[in-house]
Amino acid sequence: MPARRVRADARRNVEKLLDAADAAFRELGTGAPLEPVARRAGVAIGTLYGHFPNRRALARALLRDRHDALFARGDRLAEEPPGPALAAWIRAMAEHAALYGGLAEMLAAGLDNEASELHDDCARMTALTERLLAHARAARAVRPDVTPADVLALTTAAAWTRAQSAEQADRLLDHALRGMLTP
Amino acid sequence: MPARRVRADARRNVEKLLDAADAAFRELGTGAPLEPVARRAGVAIGTLYGHFPNRRALARALLRDRHDALFARGDRLAEEPPGPALAAWIRAMAEHAALYGGLAEMLAAGLDNEASELHDDCARMTALTERLLAHARAARAVRPDVTPADVLALTTAAAWTRAQSAEQADRLLDHALRGMLTP
DNA sequence: ACCTGAACACCGTTCAAGT
DNA sequence: ACCTGAACACCGTTCAAGT
Question: Which CATH number characterizes residue A151's domain?
Answer without folding.
Answer: 1.10.357.10
